Each structure stands twice: as structure tokens, then as C-alpha cells.
Amino acid sequence: MNPKNDAHLFKQYQQRLKKEKRIVWIWQLSILIVFISLWEVSSSFYWIDPLLFSSPSSIIELLYTKLGDGSILSHVQITLFETIAGFLIGTLAGVLFATLLWSSQRFSRVMDPYLVIMNAMPKVALGPILIVALGTGYISIIAMGAIISVIITTLVVYSAFNEVDPNYEKVLKSFGATRWQCFKEAIFPATLPAMISTLKVNVGLSWVGVIVGEFLVAKKGLGYLIIYGFQVFDFSLVLSALVLIAIFAAIMYKAVERLERWLIKHSG
Amino acid sequence: MSYLNLEHVSHLYFTKKGYTRALNDISLSIKEGEFVSLLGPSGCGKSTILSIIAGIIKQSTGTIRLQGKPINESSLAIGYMLQQDYLFPWKTIMENVLLGPKIYNKNTEDVKNKAMEMLEEVGLPNVADAYPASLSGGMRQRAALVRTLINDPKIFLLDEPFSALDYQTKLKLEDLVSKLLKMYQKTAVLVTHDIGEAIAMSDRIFVMNANPGTIEKVFEVPLELRNEDPFLVRRHPKYQLLFDKVWEELNKNEKESVQTKGVHKVDES
Ligand SMILES: Nc1ncnc2c1ncn2[C@@H]1O[C@H](COP(=O)(O)OP(=O)(O)OP(=O)(O)O)[C@@H](O)[C@H]1O
Ligand SMILES: [Mg+2]
């Protein structure tokens, strides 16, 4: 009798969970629908200026034709390429730089004030200088995407390196391990979770860098479309570009989250 | 002939605020195959001695010789076990055990088979591919023991390796360690707070005093006790006698050292 009863209770519990999940989902969907319909209605009744705020239907129409004739795809491609490149370069360079700091205490002491300044400085302010130095092509935009995340990655990863329990190093040193071996066997793997969590932050940062970079200089890309739409007063175009950015940024974030789960599973 | 020899070893720790004399003029010698214990109040420098012997930190003054050679020139492997097992959580038990051979660049198939055998010997036959998180405290400490033994160290340094375990597991591990070290004829230095453990496992006991760390007194464990299993030693009539003597010595030291203070503050001006 008892186990049957337990199973029954468990089933009830599961059903409650399922129900809760469904309620949350319905709410989420309703908010989206209400928002879009309100927007559509208020725009078609001129409660808001459709010239400025466009409307969901015209955005969808615009996206449909531009995706259909492929003219917006190249913009999406270039922006995605720049963002992913900026993200990878920023993250890798940050980890590498943190490793350098770790490898020499003196170097890290010397660098300390410069890191503080560079971290405090709003990186997008470097935009014009990057453009002067690297030209008006996609290189300086990638550099913007990278530079915005590299310093914070360096600082976070370096402090994670220093927080690793020194006893792991003690074990390795008792085997006669070199400093480099200690890094490879203990410091690096122990900080992998910290590094992975910087990945998630860096995805968002790279989008900021790349879009600002495109605002400044580009002839192509979603950031360029936003500025162009703004200049020719085509706010459907501006908002379409925004929708695309939102979608791809969310996809990238989810992909990094997947990667995070996979890495954590496969690193014990 | 003495195997490991410390002569007038002192050590100071420096921090920004001042310095601590952790060890003051320590001299001791240990014979090959001997098992000695260091007993003393917290902060008397027991861990410091082990770290110096292991070559992890360098003493401020004095010399340490292993088989007549200064310790940093000797290429003999040293085994070091800490209070916690410090198994690397991202490595499997087998990878953990093979860490030493990997560092020494001797990671062969033979070593792997030997590791397998030793894991079986300590009662861990089926965990080679498991991660440390899935093992109990006692199992983990046994795996750490294999990780140390596999390098065939000439000297075994044990820094309170049983103190984080429950009593029953601790007694069993004491027996196991004692059996293995006798079998492989290892020289060992054990740091502990447990007088019973020191008597049960060792041939000689060094009682230390804090502020600064010095060796107060050396106790010889009676021959009858030395060859028993640690578990049985605790029931031996001579055990209680020695226990009382050591206890008295430790208490005496504690009373004396209440007034003194370890850290010397240095004025900036
Ligand atoms: N890295 C360090 N920096 C500064 N002082 C230290 C350091 N390590 C130890 N000390 C000091 O040196 C003294 C001896 O420390 P040690 O760890 O050797 O003691 P211990 O006998 O092992 O103590 P316990 O029984 O608590 O483990 C203590 O006063 C401690 O505060
Ligand atoms: Mg200690």
C-alpha cells in the first residue's frame, strides 16, 4: 500500500511542476503577444507616430523581402563574423595575458596601475584611434569587439588564478613539478569554471563593441543599417536590425551556455 | 648512520607587517626505515619542518642532508601527504594516482599496472575511472596514499593525514599506512595532534614547543610497541605509561608558552 501511495504522491508532484511550467510559459507568450498587438494597434490608429516607431507588420514585411532577396544576409554575416572574431580574440588574449601576469609576480606588480587605468577607461572611446590605426575596414571593428572584453577577462582570470588552493601546487611541487607544470596540471584546470563564466559576459560585451564600431565607420553590418536607417529616417529598418541583433545575440548566448555545460561535464 | 639530518635549522616567515620565527635551531636525525612523529601545539612549526624537508620552502639558516647530500641536490623522491587528500577533482582517480609519474615523465604501461595493483591493495579495486567527488573521505585518503606511494619515495612526510577522518576510518588507515610503510621499508615523518596516534605508529616522538618552534624532548617508543599494529598498540600496558609522560610534557609546554607572542611587529618609521 505504502509504495503505491508514494508513487502517487510523486506523480502529483510532477504534475504540479508541469502545471507551473505551463503557466509561466503562457504568461511569457501573452506578454509578447500583448506587446506586439498593442504596438501594431497603436501604430495603425496613430496613437504613436508610425514614422518613428514603425509597426510589427511593417518590420515583418521588411524582413521578409530583405531576407527573401538576400540583401540583409550579407549585413548579418559580416556582423556575426566580427562579433565572433572579437569575442574569441578578446577572450583568448585575456586568458593569455592573465597567464603572463601569473608567470611573473614582478610583471604583474609593474602592470597593476596600467591595468586599473585601462579597466576604468570606457573602451569605446578608443574607437576613433583604432580606426586611425587600423583603417576603416572590419579589422578595426573586430578590434573594438575584442578590446572591450580583453581587460576585464584578464583581471577576472588572473584573480581566479591567484585564488586556487595553494595546496594543489604543494602536492605537485612535492613531486618536483616546475612552475609551468603546476600551471598546466592545477592552476589552469582549477580556473576553467571561472574562465567559462567570463565567456558569457564577453558575448554581450563583444556585441557592444562591434555595434559601436559599425556606428562609427562601417559600410556594412547591422550597426551600419541602424545608423543608415536613422539617417534616411527609415525606422522600420532600424527596428528590423534591432530585432535581428536581439535574435542572434540570444542564440550566441545560448550556444555559450551549452558550451559551458558541456565543458563542465567533461572536465569532471 | 643517519639518513635524514637536520642541523641547526631555523626558519622565519616574513609578511608585510612583521616576521615570525617559526623554527628555531632545530637539529634532528632520522635513521633509514625509521618512523618518527612530531607532536606539539598548533603553530609550533610542524608543517614548516615538513615543507622544508620536502623542498617546497627553503630554510632561512641551517642545513638539511639526505644520505649526506644537501636536500636540493639529492634527486630522491619525497612523498608528501596533507591533511586533506587534495585529489584533483577534475581528474579521475587513476589520473590522480599517475600525476607523479607524469611529472617525472615515467608514465608507462608498467606504472599503470602497478597503480592498478596498489589501488587493489588499499581496497579500491573498482574506482580507477571514478572522480574523487564520488568517493568517501577514507577512500579518497587511500587514493592519495597510492598517489604518493607510486613514486616510490624514499621519505614519507605525513601532515596530519588522518585528522579529517572519522575515528573508525582513522584507525583502519593507520594500520594500512603502517603496514605499507613497513613493507616498503620507508622512512617516515608524521605530524599529528593525537598522542595516541604518535605512540601507535612511530619509533620515536619529538615533542615541540611554540614561539619559536623548538624541539623540547624526544621520547623513544618501547620496542614491544614498535612492531605491533597501531590498533593493538593502544591496548598494550606500556602504551598508557608513555601516553601519560608525553601528555605531561605537552601540558608543561603549554603553560610556559602562554606569555610569549610569536609575531614581531616592525615599525614602518
Ligand atoms: N606562509 C606563512 N606566512 C607567514 N607565517 C606563516 C606562514 N606559514 C606559517 N606561518 C607561521 O609560522 C608558524 C608555524 O606554522 P606551521 O604551519 O608550521 O605550524 P603547525 O605546527 O603546522 O601548526 P598546526 O598544528 O596548526 O598545523 C605559525 O606561527 C604560523 O603563523
Ligand atoms: Mg600544520
UniProtKB/TrEMBL annotation, chain B:
**Record key words, sorted:** ATP-binding, Nucleotide-binding, Transport
Pfam families membership: ABC_tran
Gene3D superfamilies xrefs: P-loop containing nucleotide triphosphate hydrolases
- InterPro entries to which the protein is assigned, alphabetical: AAA+_ATPase (IPR003593), ABC_transporter-like_ATP-bd (IPR003439), ABC_transporter-like_CS (IPR017871), ABC_transporter_ATP-bind (IPR050166), P-loop_NTPase (IPR027417)
The GO terms this record gives for MF are: ATP binding
Does the entry feature the keyword ATP-binding, yes or no?
A: yes
Q: What is this protein called?
A: ABC transporter ATP-binding protein
List the source organism: Virgibacillus halodenitrificans (Bacillus halodenitrificans)
Which taxonomic lineage does the organism of this UniProt entry have?
A: Bacteria, Bacillati, Bacillota, Bacilli, Bacillales
